[in-house]
Amino acid sequence: MSDVARAAGVSVMTVSNVLNERTNVGADTRLRVLEVVEELGYEINLTARRLRSGRTGTIGLIVPQFDLHYYGELASRISEALAPEGMHLVVEQSGASRERELSALSLARLQQYDGVLLSAVGLDMADLDRIHPDVPIVLLGEQAVPERYHRVRMGNVEGARLATEHLVGCGARRVAVLGGKTSAPHPEMATYRTDGWSQALDQAGLPHDPALVIPLTTYSIAEARSAISAAVDGGLEVDAIFAVTDEVAIGALAGLHDAGLRVPEDVQLAGFDNLGISAHLVPGLTTIDPDHPTLVTEALRLLRRQLKDRTADPEHVVSGARLVARGTTRGRSAP
Amino acid sequence: MSDVARAAGVSVMTVSNVLNERTNVGADTRLRVLEVVEELGYEINLTARRLRSGRTGTIGLIVPQFDLHYYGELASRISEALAPEGMHLVVEQSGASRERELSALSLARLQQYDGVLLSAVGLDMADLDRIHPDVPIVLLGEQAVPERYHRVRMGNVEGARLATEHLVGCGARRVAVLGGKTSAPHPEMATYRTDGWSQALDQAGLPHDPALVIPLTTYSIAEARSAISAAVDGGLEVDAIFAVTDEVAIGALAGLHDAGLRVPEDVQLAGFDNLGISAHLVPGLTTIDPDHPTLVTEALRLLRRQLKDRTADPEHVVSGARLVARGTTRGRSAP
DNA sequence: GTGAAAGCGCTAACAA
DNA sequence: TTGTTAGCGCTTTCAC
């Protein structure tokens, strides 16, 4: 920067003012400085700026895994929403383990961002309670969190109920929940969605056999596929499956095929998340749309509020859930 | 850090030495410093460290789009490979447009990383030629690049040829290439893969009707689906499709279903990339495996070489391509 | 409208 | 083994 200042015959402060588009610079001075910047190929050092000013212009998004489609879509949406505001998004992977999540969450790393969107799955209340970051944070996700955090989540129970009601409405009588979890030290995505499933069965007067809860640990396509194959081979009889995520539902589709069962004729299927790919499966996947645009808009609103006022009162926002009926269920007209 | 130093009764330099695990600190001093660090909840300021030392411990990966599954899987693999070395990966989205890619590539942003893995699609030779970063860069991708860049890419032509040969070997006589491109100002993924398709048809003595090249612009599932539907409705007659990516093949699967065609009975299908999901589609997607582990290992090797020696001679590495036959093709035993 | 001085928090280099 | 000095490149503050 001092090279530029020297070549333009001004002080470094003036160069800084020009580059920051401050208004206290004469038009001719401004032009001269910009010319020299171009000529010398000067690029500002963002690290120095950050050290001095504290601003980075960068928002961090921390997700458990890059290769779960849900997080790829989330990152894409957030990135697009930030671009018009001149902010950059960078994404880090925490690896879904408590240990790696805690390390990604170390204040040292968080401080590199103006704000952080944290999609935590491995952290529990106690972990989150211990952390006192001075960077604005918005939690994205389903697990229980301390009150003081700003947070956006989906309508999990409601969505799961909608999906299960739809399956029952389409004639299902034995509805399994793939990826279900009836108890956990702290509530999380799977327990909430299992609750919704459970509520819908209760309302319909259907019993819920514990065998209908098929647990998963990674919620990957491969794991879901083999879990379903194994369950059917093991004698499980179902006429519908509520998969706790679309990713899991994709695995179920394959696993049911492996077991020689047709979807939706023999077994109906519904997922949760409405991934981009879900509309393009064959048959199309019936699923719950958690209103991604609102999720993203609200998360960024909460972040901006904190950016403006560090002491803003925490908000917990819940997005709506909407059923999207496609080919894996037989539709309300069916018996 | 000076607070810690004061509380521990040492100099800031000693605190720095302890935190950097340098060996020139007495065991008792070390312990005392660590105690105080813990007690005060001190966390190092990475920005200041970076400004002074130039090291960041962070590698940047720049991809066109977060929500193409290929990039999610790539990011995940790289992240896992870097973790054991104590390096962090952060991912940025360039948005697939030249403009946004150039901005992501601004020296200012690149300098924030120790090294950069750049998966560029919007940049051409001229753009890349203009950029003279002083950060080690490895290009990941298929487009032509100036010699001075280190670069890893797939065996595109070979892979496309293998896929097309397999389709022909399974009895196909009219093989379309979905996402094909026969000419472009600069060669890129689609042109290379179209070349491979073309070579295989030549070798088999099959004509290549220009109508068999179905162009795409975004290579998204939705675009591929409607392109195939439209082509079939428009009278296109084919008995096989080579899709230039698995993502495109997934769209083709849906589009063929829309058109009332069965896979593989009426139309066989092969993709390219061997995504994680491809094995779990119904039917399983025949595809080309570009040897992801080697791709990642080699990219990181090239990056480490540059990290050690900025003047290391550039290398261009090409990974092998291997056919993975699944249910969307009829297998070699078929007529 | 422009510039000089100070310092963000750390580490390289060297001194003790 | 520990400490001192200087300075990374920028922006804040304040004087002109």
TrEMBL record, chains A, B:
Alphabetized SMART domains for the sequence: HTH_LACI (SM00354)
Xref: CDD domains: HTH_LacI, PBP1_LacI_sugar_binding-like
Matching Pfam families: LacI, Peripla_BP_3
SUPFAM superfamilies: lambda repressor-like DNA-binding domains, Periplasmic binding protein-like I
Residue ranges occupied by any HTH lacI-type domain in the UniProt entry: 1-53
UniProt name for this protein: LacI family transcriptional regulator
Flavoprotein found in the keyword field: no
Keywords, in A-Z order: DNA-binding, Transcription, Transcription regulation
